[in-house]
Amino acid sequence: MDDLDRFFEKIKSVGFFERLFNWSKLKEMSYDSHKDFLSLKHELETISNEKKELVEEKGKLSIQIDNLKEKEKEQSNKLTGFEITKEQRQKDYEKNMENLLKLEDNFQRKEEKLEDSQEQDRQNKFEMMKKQWRIHEDLVEQIIKKISSKYTIKYLSKTDIPFKGSPDNCIQIAGEYIIFDAKSPKDDNLDNFPKYIKAQAEQAKKYIKEKNVKKDIFLVVPSNTVDEIKQFSYNMVDYSVYIITLDALEPIILSLQKIEDYEFTDQLSPEERQHICRIIGKFAHTSKRRIQVDHFFAKEYIDILSKCYDLPKEILDGAVEAEKSGMLNPPMEKRVKQISEDKIKEDSERIKREAEAKNIYMDSDFSKLDEGKLDKD
């Protein structure tokens, strides 16, 4: 590079005579400078090649950087998409959980409402039962007094009873005192009622120690307790206790009154005694069977009435209005008028004919009912 620089400086300053007489020196300088030029050219080419390689390397790096940026962008987009999806999933999850909680809350409230309704139904049923139990003793007394008055049977009030023990009700037939004690549950738990009745049957022993007290004691229970009672008679060796309901009072008292037709019970023949026993047994069986059937249908009616409240409101309101407008007028019982047996038979035959006209055969059905073979259809 120094020779080349001197050569260019010399060329710029050389004159005509120097070119003419010193050309060989210039020529020599040109050779030296040419070497420098070639060296410079080589360096330039090398630099150029290096530059080219650097440019190519830069291009490759740029491509790699672009690829990296693209990948980075792609990853960023994926990350953004993932974040969006995660956020959406979180929102969907929270929404679904909210709906689930609402459903659970609605279900819980409906379940509580149903339980409250069922509990209210049970409470209403027990309140009705307790109301009946509260008036049971007075009702038994009124009915026995009415029967006694109707059939001219002596009824003894508690102040007129000539022996100890204070039974609820006492009548006198053929010189014997016949006791009818009213018994009802003390609380809503009917499971203990059979044990209570058994205990009362055992305590009735205090009555038979008294003079002229009949050895048959009757405990009168409410009709709605019959299902809980499994034993309706107790043979206590020295006396017997029978569990009856209000419906059985009249037929049993009438059966007992039959004994008064004889001046002395010792005069009864074995056939007559057996006949009386059959009459009493038939009355007891018929009364208990009637009570069971009535109680069965009462429960069915209550169940149907409960289901009526599930009807659409429009239909239920219409049914309530129709119920208010309806009225049943059963025949009124008159003290001075005897119930005609012939009239009852006539009405029974008429109902039987009307039933048979509708393909309802009452005789066969009733016979099966007593035998426990009534077809469920």
What would your notes on this structure say?
The protein is α/β, with parallel strands linked by helices. Strand 2 and strand 3 (176-182) form a beta hairpin. The protein has two domains: 1-103; 136-325 and 359-371, no CATH class. Helix 3 runs parallel beside helix 6. 67% of the residues lie in helices and 7% in strands. The longest helix has 128 residues, at 23-150.
Outline the fold blueprint:
Elements: H1 2-13, H2 16-21, H3 23-150, E1 154-156, E2 169-173, E3 176-182, H4 193-203, H5 205-208, E4 216-220, E5 233-235, E6 240-244, H6 246-257, H7 270-308, H8 313-325, H9 341-357, H10 362-371
Parallel strand pairs: 3-4, 4-6
Antiparallel strand pairs: 1-2, 2-3, 5-6
User: In terms of per-residue confidence, which ranges show pLDDT below 50 for 5 or more consecutive residues?
Assistant: 364-377
**How helical, in percent, are the residues?**
55-70%
The profile of the biggest β sheet is: 6 strands, mixed
| Structural class by secondary-structure content | alpha/beta
Order of helices and strands: HHHEEEHHEEEHHHHH
Calculate the mean pLDDT score and round it: 77
* Tertiary shape: rod-shaped
What distance separates the N and C termini? 131 Å
Overall domain count: 2
Question: How many extended strands?
Answer: 6
The fraction of residues assigned to DSSP E strands is 5-15%
Number of helices: 10
Radius of gyration: 59 Å
The largest sheet has its strands arranged as 1-2-3-4-6-5
